[in-house]
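Students often ask what a holo structure prediction actually looks like on paper. The answer is less mysterious than it sounds. You provide the chain, you provide the ligand, and the output is a string of discrete structure tokens encoding the 3D arrangement of the protein together with magnesium ion.
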Amino acid sequence: MCEVVFPPCPFSLTHGSLTEQAKGDRPSHSASIGRTVPHALLEIRNLSYSLGGRAILRDISLDVREGETVVLLGRSGSGKTTLLKTVNELIAATSGTIRFEGRLAAEWDPIHLRRRMGYVIQDGGLFPHWTVEANVALVPRLAAWPPQRIAHRVEELLTAVGLAPAEFRGRYPRRLSGGEKQRVGIARALAADPPLLLFDEPFAALDPITRLDLQRLFLELRRSVRKTALFVTHDIREAMMLASRIALLKDGALDLLAEPREFRAADTPEARAFLAGLEQNGSAENWSQDEQRPRL
Amino acid sequence: MNSDLASEMLSLSLEHLAMVAIAIAIAGAIALPAGVLLSRRPGPRRWAVGFANIAQTIPSLALFGFLVPLPLIGGIGKRTAIVALCLYALLPILRNTLLGITGVDASVRESAVAMGMTARQILWQVELPLAAPSIVAGLRLATVATIGTATIAAAIGGGGLGVFIFRGISMVDAPTVLAGALPAAAMALLADGGLEWIERKLSPA
Ligand SMILES: Nc1ncnc2c1ncn2[C@@H]1O[C@H](COP(=O)(O)OP(=O)(O)O)[C@@H](O)[C@H]1O
Ligand SMILES: [Mg+2]
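The corresponding structure tokens follow.
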């Protein structure tokens, strides 16, 4: 899947690569290139979800292609979390289909499906009774990797998310700051090299400076490991900074799907409402430009 | 006479201890799995906790009395006493198991599911370890209370340290009452301290 990385990866990993692709224990995604009907990594079609007669998601169709970051932007209550949860089958949609790696979600064993999607939530959701090392090692351990390989992987990942392994490996989550918790959460999500990352407002509870650090880390990691991500936020600046494409949700429906540049010129009332917030808080141009988007 | 007293104290203490241990083991074997199952079902949970609450409110002497005439579980002797002690021990163990499991942070449980853990893995690797301090606290409450309540077993021929206490009461002899009460109190303190230590060890670092 991810081969040549340019510009040069900001963390030169001295041993191994963050993407584990050499280990040969999972199907290669580059195989999809040769397919006659190319599928996006994730295809959401006409997805609806109702709860107690109330429509929470309305007829959403959305593709997430390999290597891109689709940001789900919307107000609180617009259905972002619900949409994310239908993707890894934490919630069963009322109608519509989801296809992941070319296979219908219904054909997947949910456990197996979830292990191929890293998941990071706002407060980290780290296991409080496990050390940082055990937390990061979760999915590799579930997948029964040999202990040597797990230890090596944890070291590699902690380094990649900016936490000195010697200092942090043995710590318990309660002794981590909010930003460190999210770094560990990201390391845990990346651990078994899942093709898709699901992020639900992972930086929303952080102070602005730490948030910026983590957003930059996200961009750096994306350059180095070329991950595909579905990223939920209510923050237009964050969306502009991180997105390959922005999917704007309004009342459970897809209001707009656009690249950040196009989004800036969008004229739906909801998009304008978000853009107004952007102009008020100063320019975010700096963020959207320095990041070359993954080629599609 | 003195060495007779000492050996009787020892044998009654052991009898007492055995009765408590069996009652707690059985109550635990029922209440722990029940707590796990009920933590998933809010409806039946209310009924079960209600039942255990009611069992708890019956005065202990009366409960022993109720059980004696019952077939199978009743009669005079140890078995009836153990059944009664079990009924008392159920509630604290059940309630604390439920508290421990339902108290696991929603975001932790959500992450566990989302990372692809199976229900069984979540139970054994996440829920039970996180609930362990609360479960042990329930066992501690149950054990300490049962050590005290078990002195009533002597009233229905169950033996244990209550034998001294009832004998002392009928003879109006305080030292004989103390020969039963003091070892029971010491046992309760030891159990309390020991289980509290375990509880602390199990709390996340
Ligand atoms: N478990 C639930 N029960 C009832 N309503 C819910 C539940 N979860 C979400 N909702 C409703 O669904 C809508 C979308 O919620 P959510 O997906 O969490 O929004 P967002 O993540 O965009 O803030 C909200 O109106 C919320 O009230
Ligand atoms: Mg949300």
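Residues 1-17, 20-35, 283-296 of chain A have pLDDT under 50 and may be disordered.
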